[in-house]
Amino acid sequence: PGPAPNAWQVIKGVLFRIFIIWAISSWFRRGPSTPDPSTPAGAPRVPSRNLFLKDALMDLYVYVSQEEVFSDFNNTEALFWYHRDLVYGDWTTGENGDGCYEHYKELEIPEKVQQNGSLYMHVYFTKSGFHPDSKRKGQYRRLATVHASRMLNKFKRRKFQKTKNLLTGETEADPEMIKRAESHGPVEIISHWHPNLTINMVDDHTAWVKGSVPPPLDQHVKFDAVSGDYYPIVYFNDYWNLQKDYYPINDTLSTLPLRLSYCPISLWRWQLYAAQNARSPWNFLPEDTYEQTDEDQDSVKVALLETNPYLLGLTIVVSIVHSIFEFLAFKNDIQFWNSRQSLEGLSVRSIIFGVFQSLVVLLYILDNETNFVVQVSVFIGLLIDLWKITKVMDVRLDRERKIAGVFPRLVFKDKSTYVESSTKIYDDMAFRYLSWLLYPLLGCYAVYSLLYVEHKGWYSWILGMLYGFLLTFGFITMTPQLFINYKLKSVAHLPWRMLTYKALNTFIDDLFAFVIKMPMMYRIGCLRDDVVFFIYLYQRWIYRVDPNRVNEFGTSGIEQMQDSTAAAVAAPSTAANLTHKP
Fold first, then answer.
1. What is the residue-wise DSSP string for 267-305?
2. Quick one: 582 exposed, middle or buried, by C-beta within 10 A (0-12, 13-18, 19+)?
3. What mean pLDDT comes out for the span 316-344?
């Protein structure tokens, strides 16, 4: 079992990035031109203009070649598409009256491309009457030619994990895949093809200032070194090409279909697409460790294409609310344990078990080479759980009894507020009862995983078995706190703010678990967490307010009344002393 995909959280991240790009772009565009310190008088830089005027006539040349740098303009076989007299910024002409044109052709596959070679497309826009070949005197003009190139095929990693049944040594994997894994290794780079691609030319005449174009737009706006003006932006749009529609290029294929479309695009809409491909310049991580998985990207696109617009709008609003609740739950959880003075009524064993749970999840995702960002987030969660241990137990280093005579021994001791109260007795009792249920379930799940699930080795089996067990039955560890509440007939010691925020997030998860396609186990997990929280609410209702109970700050109503009475008695005495003072 792997981590359940959460498509609506991916949508939230995508929309957040779009908003950031739009905000940065708007801020830069309305600001004054930036002074150039290199000029003698520090004069402001002169705003530039688009080299292609509005409604200018232009010709489109599209060449397909194996060369990354194209120069063979005389090769007629390389010319894939030639279209004359396009109108820059025109939205009314074309086959469908939207300014778009389309061209389809099947390409013969060169032998090198069949063997994981690359195939490039070179696009040239020239003002009407000019040619992109710089060797043609009188027909070529630098300021009248816009060039952009792109690799048509896409290299994708195909990972093969050698798994087998640990008892029989057999595997259900395809024998051909096993042979390829033995010859190419566990990771194979395969060239893939998608038959559709759109060439967008941005209809933009903004007076950009060189050096002040915000990222990631600065990667696309190209200025002429001599005139200082900028070329029109040519953008290759493949956003709606789903990963599942790509297919591998091999020797069984003889031709490759290619459908090219030319369409104008507004600056605002282009920024939305550009934001999806933007990569932060502060990101020092390799690209493959930070990218979303292909499945996540496809889930976003499918949600945008197939989801009702009203439901999609609701998704965006609730996603923002979900993020706020996540932050508030985290904040109140830290505040609760940082200011906690008494452990009466709290299950310390549940905190310790939470550390074990986080450690298993971290080791599992490391063993399965999960996304680096996910690994970091789980590691931070483990550190927070370890920090909680220092709040519920007395932790010290014993330098007298060292491990192997070198390393100090780490000693854990229950706090006095936990031992002296009846909480420890009820906590031990709850986990003893719980073990009668958990150990048989763990044994049965271990046998099932060993018999019917393939693993890389015994280490992977242990981690996979523990992770799957915790994913399935982990909610049972929430029940000891319910048992302690029942025995103490009190819930005043619980962090109700944190629990409320987490419960609201769980309800939101319930909503999206049944709206967006998700595994059944994920839906059941959301439902069972709701059941446990409703039991908490029921206990809060039946256990009325009692001034003798200790709240989440470690104080009771009796103590507060005593402090108030003492302060009231001390106030007149202080006033009397001040009155009789000579």
1. HHHHHHHHHHT---TT--S-HHHHSPPHHHHHHHHHHHH
2. exposed
3. 79
Query: Cβ atoms within 10 A of the Cβ of 513, count?
Result: 22
Run of H or E including 87 = strand 79-87
What DSSP designation does 219 have? G
Residue 71 domain flag = yes
Angle between helices 7-30 and 294-306 (to 10 degrees): 80
Task: Give the number of other Cβ atoms within 10 Å of residue 255's Cβ.
Answer: 10
Please name which of 376, 386, 380 lies closest in space to residue 356, comparing C-alpha atoms. Answer: 386
Is the pTM higher than 0.85? The answer reads no
Largest CA distance in the chain: 113
Give the tens place of pLDDT for each residue, 410-440. Answer: 888 888 777 777 878 888 888 888 888 888 8
- 452 lies in a domain? no
Whole-angstrom distance between the N-terminal and C-terminal Cα of the chain? Answer: 82
Could you tell me if 425 and 435 are in contact, meaning their C-beta atoms sit under 8 angstroms apart?
A: no
Q: What is the pLDDT of residue 364?
A: 86
Q: Is residue 258 part of a domain?
A: yes
Mean pLDDT of 384-410: 82
Domain region containing 75 = 55-284
Residue in 287, 320, 324, 316 with CA at minimum distance from that of residue 300: 316
Q: How far apart are CA 396 and CA 409, in angstroms?
A: 8
- Helix, strand and coil in the chain, % to nearest 5: 50, 20, 35
User: Which residues, in sequence order, are bridge partners of residue 124?
Assistant: 61, 147
Domain count of the fold of the chain: 1
- For residue 341, tell me if it sits in a domain: no
